[in-house]
Amino acid sequence: MHVTRCPIPVATRAPGGETNAYLVSATETRYGGAGGKPAILVDPAAKTDDLDRLLEDYTVDHVLVTHTHPDHVGAVEPYAAATDATVWARYGRVDRFRDTTGCDPDRTFTPGTTIPLGDERVRILDTPGHAPDHVALEAGHGGPICCGDCAVREGSVVVGAPEGDMRAYMTTLRRLRAIDPPALYPGHGPEIHAPRATLERLLTHRTEREQRIREAAAMGADTVAEVLETAYDKDLTGVRDLARATVAAHLEKLAVESHVAWDGQPAASLADD
After folding, report:
1. Rounded distance, CA 123 to CA 225, Å?
2. What angle, 0 to 180 degrees and rounded to 10, lies between the N-to-C axes of helices 166-179 and 195-218?
3. Are 143 and 229 in a shared domain?
4. Are 131 and 163 in contact, with CB atoms under 8 Å apart?
5. pTM more than 0.90
6. Shared-domain flag, residues 179 and 255
7. Contact present, 22 and 146 (Cβ < 8 Å)
8. Which residue intervals of the chain are DSSP H helices?
9. Which of 25, 56, 93, 197 has its CA 20 to 30 A from that of 83?
10. Which of 188, 163, 187, 184 lies closest to 175, judged by CA?
11. Digit-coded pLDDT (tens) for 190-213
12. Same structural domain, 141 and 235
């Protein structure tokens, strides 16, 4: 299968100010019939001339999103209407999908659902953490994965409370590492050609951040703000709110694992194990 990336300028906190839309298409030598190559449109963040031109060479049969954050879903409705494609949403998250896209889905999927594309199939993978409804798309058996906001080639992914789940996110990274795909196509930034190394880097980053947060708690930090000042040693101008949400997500994970005492309140006390 082929994966084609189309960066789209959109209101996003991600570096670069773009979200990637993707066309996952059947292998050219294996499809038949009139019209363009059958394809799935993934994460149409906004309607743009570049994406319109790209779609001219394809027959879009399906529209999906990796998750329903606003910077990934802005053009679901117009492209669904223009292509008459089947619109999919995650089972159990239809209201969330409808609220963010303004579009009623035609069908729902669950992790493990496969969607036919020509004589090949795209498989839905459960990849929560960054968002509770997050999924990824595996393009053919053992093929590349459109991973949404699970990974980026450089930097790290925001996993912020209350919606982000750090425990689930780190499990997702380990699952993707175990699959060991040939490439990852992220929601932001360029293709990831060395997925295993990138996933290990992201796991290491999260583990090291978590250790610094535990050390801050052990030193007596008992609010998110105090933990933040101790656990981060870089300039947080413009991203302090994201860093605070990330600290809270780490604390929630550590509390579940009984490493700290944390009840989610700004003045909650912390205790090292």
Report:
1. 41
2. 150
3. no
4. yes
5. yes
6. no
7. yes
8. 49-55, 70-73, 76-83, 94-101, 166-179, 195-218, 224-231, 240-256
9. 93
10. 184
11. 999 999 999 999 999 999 999 999
12. no
